[in-house]
Request: fold
Amino acid sequence: HILVLKPSSLGDIVHTLPAVAALRGRHPAARITWMVNPEWAPLLEGNRHVSDTLIFPRADFHGATSWLKFLRWRSGLAARMQPDIVADFQGLLRTALIARAFRRASIYGLSDAREGARFFQTKTVRADREAHAVERYLALATALGASADAVPQFDLPAGTQPSAELPAEPFVVLHPFSRGSGKSLPPDAVAAFCRALGRPVVLAGRTDNPTATFPDNATDLINRTSLPELVWLLRRAAFVVSVDSGPMHLAAALNGRLLGIHTWSDPCRVGPYSTGAHVWKGGQFFPALDPASSAVGARIPDTADAEAIARWVGTRLG
Reply:
């Protein structure tokens, strides 16, 4: 029985999928349980590599008695199950404390774990800080006997068609906003991209800021899609353009026809993990994981950049 600890976030869960698939390849008869936050559990529905999911009710642990609630939940969890191995892909204090609840289990974790989580591990796997997250998580699976040569597998659900009216296919999905600081596109750049592309565009994702008015060729689904609906859209898009965010990584796993927009983050460490994808950074276009993209300076796309991106996407669409 292997317990996988990776409750969040969206991009991190996508990055962990190949490691869990590799574990299944090495241990075909094992029970593999994945602990996940409830909002991300739909990503694991129907996953043939996962035996069952365990919901981590993080929202329940708030207020002055949050730690008491957490420890009570942790104690009840240890009474219900006893895995043989805990694979802590999250590497934070809360997952380390969960792992230590299972006193007979071997705890595997990465050397770059934070918040003192390394001190709870019984086996620490060296992590290359410069490597992509997918490769770092695969190193943990390799320590558990998985093949280091396995082709990364991203097992994701089919998704659910949105109830909103969509343009006729083919359409381009644009995910322009990110919770990360300095990663979102300005609204005028979003509008400029849509105008310059001149093809049906579906705007997807979430933002806490009011959205602007976009051209007639844009279908605005910002804050109007569930996670299964986003999966469905990304699967069927003729092309996806996304800022550095969880949905960008989801698109890389679902759809190789992707351009990831990086304002300041390193595309080789946190960019799309897909041989067919590309990235934009500092006004230049690169194949995904091209080392040259790491050396380009930071820049937020303006309207001229957005128009250039639209023209580049147009050449890919033919």
Q: What stands out?
A: The chain has nine helices and 13 strands. The chain has a mean pLDDT of 95.
